[in-house]
Every structure is written in structure tokens, then in C-alpha cells.
Specification:
This is DUF2817 domain-containing protein. This protein is an alpha/beta fold. It contains 13 helices and 7 strands. The chain has a domain of 231 residues: Aminopeptidase, CATH 3.40.630. Helix 1 runs parallel beside helix 2 and helix 6 crosses helix 7. The longest helix has 24 residues.
Length: 364
């Protein structure tokens, strides 16, 4: 009998080993898109892909983790538990649903305990048309010098100015300006990039191999860091103005939230990953969510991201100092709560959401 601790990890090699072992135990093959760089411990990095169900299946469910690197430790636990659950896999087979597991969309960030890719790109802001003028975010541009100061901890004057902006704008407006995506500061927060990242291109390869023949496509992208602690919030990963998509998603996940109507814990963002579906899988009727697992308060997460970015912007700082290790631990702790109750809630709600997707694909 496996316990919740058997599904979770604190290092990328441990998580990858558990994922590959779970796929092998389920008698599933694995294909790996190998990253050009090595991990923190010199290990190979990869987007690992395994599929339960035939390639010609008309109904496909994608369950992905690690879009935001360090958030992959939560998502991978859900994936490994599902792979270790023969009842879930059998339920999907009976429903005629193939399940595609994508482990560590951003393996570099997962290994190095960073939210971004090795290019400092937020993968979920990277799916824009780079042949067009880049989106502008003047709200972020004005805040950048305060968000990523020259020294850490920030001077008192810096923090006072940020608090004044919070009081002036309010939390929702400040969150939108900071996290909506920006394309002007490559060494800043929530940077969407100036070109497609390695992770974007690897994901496209996988979709071309696995998601161009299905008639119906569901996608659950597993995240952590926003919302009440231990609560999984299903956020529409699609255009909230698409009435048919919205109706399906609300039927499958009744607690559905959306950035379109400002009901979700997330800000509206540019360059979202779901944009790739219309480009690579235009034949499929698509229904998808980001499943966001709450951890710590939003300002706590933001402070951890600011410290992480400061450390990254100062490569001369040794990574083994108490300050650097404290920053890395702080970032990990902002996206993963290492207590049994949180992990148990994550597994339960992750399974419920995937079962709902299987039943939704079966019914529609």
C-alpha cells in the first residue's frame, strides 16, 4: 500500500525516477525530449511523455506538470499517483479515452528550483506570435526597479514604495500589472521571451506526435502557488468568450473559475500555453483547465519570486551560501507545502479533476 509520500519528491532526479518507474509498472512506453543543458546535480533533463491508450483514440486527455518548473513537484505527484492507479487507467480505457502524461514541461526550472526556463522565460507567457510587435505592459515597466532591486534584502525605502503602490492600485490591479506578462525586461519577473523557448518547441513536437488525430481533446495543466492553501482551483484554460467551451468546462468542473470574468485567483495573462492548441490540434474540440493548488498568501509568493530573480541576476553570488540556499528553499516552499494534509488534498483533488475530464469526454 503506497502512501502520499511515495508520490512526491524534493529533487528532479527523484521525481523523474518515480515517474519513469510508474510508467514502467503500468507497462507504458516513455518518449523523452532531451533538454540541451544539464540539471543542478549534473543530471539529464527531459520532457518525459507516456501514453495510456491507442494512438488512434478519438478522445485524448493530457495531464501535464512543470510548466513553471518548481511547481512540477506538486504536479508530478499527481501524475505519478494516477499512473500507479490501475483503476483510473482502466476507467479511462473503458471510456475510450487515451491519457497522455507530460512530465516536466520545463525540466530545467524543476531541477534548479526556479519557476522559469533556462532563458528566464515564463513558459505560460511564451506562446505569442513573435512575428508581431511584442505586447506592452507599462504597468510592469514602472514597477520593475522596485520588484527586482539591486540588493537583497531590499532597502526599507524600496519596500515602502511597493506598499504605497499596493495601497494606491489595490491587490488585483497590482497582480495584473506584475504577473500578466511582460516582454521588455529579460531579467525581470514574468518575462514572456523574445522567441519561442526550448520548452515551447518540445511541447509542439509532442502535440504533433500525439494530439493531431483525436476528435476531442481535454487538457489539465497542473500548477501550484495561487489561492487558498490546499484548495485546487480549476481555471479555464481557453477563451472565456467561447460559449461552447465555457459550457463544457463548467459541466465537467462545476467549481470552474475564469480570468475572463475575474473570478479566478490568477490574473489575465498574455502568451498562454493553451494558444498552442488551435495551432497544433485544430481538428479537435478542446476543453481545458489549469488546476491551481493553493499554497501560501500571494504576497509571500511574490516575495519569494523577487528574491529568486535577484539571485539569478547576480551569478557571482555562490549558490551554496546560507542566503542563496535560503532563497531557494523559500521559493520551493512557496509552491509546495510539505505536510501530509496538503499532499493528500492535492492527490484527492487532482484525481477528482482527471476523473471528471474522463467522464466529460465520455459524455460529450
Amino acid at each position: 500500500m503506497m502512501s502520499e509520500s511515495d508520490f512526491f519528491s524534493r529533487s528532479y532526479p527523484e521525481a523523474r525516477t518515480k515517474f519513469l518507474a510508474a510508467a514502467e509498472a503500468a507497462e507504458l512506453d516513455v518518449h523523452s525530449e532531451i533538454h540541451p543543458l544539464l540539471g543542478r546535480d549534473g543530471e539529464t533533463l527531459a520532457l518525459d511523455v507516456t501514453r495510456s491508450g491507442p494512438m488512434e483514440a478519438e478522445k485524448l486527455l493530457i495531464v501535464s506538470s512543470g510548466c513553471h518548473g518548481v511547481e512540477g513537484y506538486a504536479g508530478a505527484g499527481v501524475q505519478i499517483a494516477l499512473l500507479r492507479d490501475p483503476d483510473f487507467l482502466a476507467e479511462a480505457r473503458r471510456a475510450g479515452v487515451a491519457v497522455l502524461f507530460l512530465h516536466a514541461l520545463n525540466p530545467w526550472g524543476m531541477s534548479w528550483w526556479r519557476r522559469v526556463t533556462h532563458e528566464n522565460i515564463d513558459l505560460n507567457r511564451n506562446f505569442i506570435d513573435f512575428h508581431q510587435p511584442l505586447p506592452q505592459n507599462p504597468g510592469y515597466d514602472a514597477l520593475h526597479p522596485l520588484l527586482v532591486p539591486a540588493t537583497w534584502p531590499p532597502p526599507a525605502e524600496n519596500e515602502a514604495k511597493l506598499q504605497a503602490e499596493l495601497a494606491r492600485q489595490g491587490m488585483a490591479a497590482l497582480q495584473q500589472a506584475i504577473s500578466g506578462g511582460q516582454y521588455s525586461e529579460p531579467e525581470g519577473l514574468f518575462f514572456g521571451g523574445h522567441a519561442p523557448s526550448w520548452s515551447q518547441q518540445a511541447l509542439r513536437h509532442v502535440l504533433r506526435d500525439h494530439a493531431t488525430r483525436c476528435a476531442k481533446l481535454a487538457w489539465i495543466d497542473l500548477h501550484s502557488g495561487l489561492g487558498p492553501t490546499g484548495v485546487a482551483e480549476p481555471i479555464l484554460a481557453g477563451d472565456g468568450r467561447d460559449a461552447a467551451l465555457l459550457q463544457r468546462a463548467q459541466a465537467w468542473w462545476p467549481a470552474l473559475k475564469s480570468t475572463h470574468d475575474h473570478s479566478s485567483s490568477s490574473a489575465a495573462i498574455s502568451g498562454s500555453m493553451w494558444n498552442v492548441v488551435a495551432q497544433e490540434c485544430p481538428q479537435a474540440e478542446y476543453t481545458g483547465i489549469v488546476l491551481e493548488f493553493g499554497t501560501v498568501p500571494l504576497l509571500h509568493v511574490l516575495q519569494a519570486l523577487r528574491a529568486d530573480q535577484w539571485l539569478e541576476n547576480h551569478p557571482e553570488k555562490p549558490l551554496r551560501t546560507p542566503q542563496a540556499e535560503g532563497i531557494r528553499e523559500g521559493l520551493f516552499g512557496a509552491f509546495f507545502i510539505n505536510v501530509p494534509s496538503w499532499k493528500e488534498a492535492l492527490l484527492r483533488q487532482g484525481r477528482e479533476a482527471t476523473q471528471a475530464a474522463v467522464q466529460g469526454l465520455l459524455a460529450h
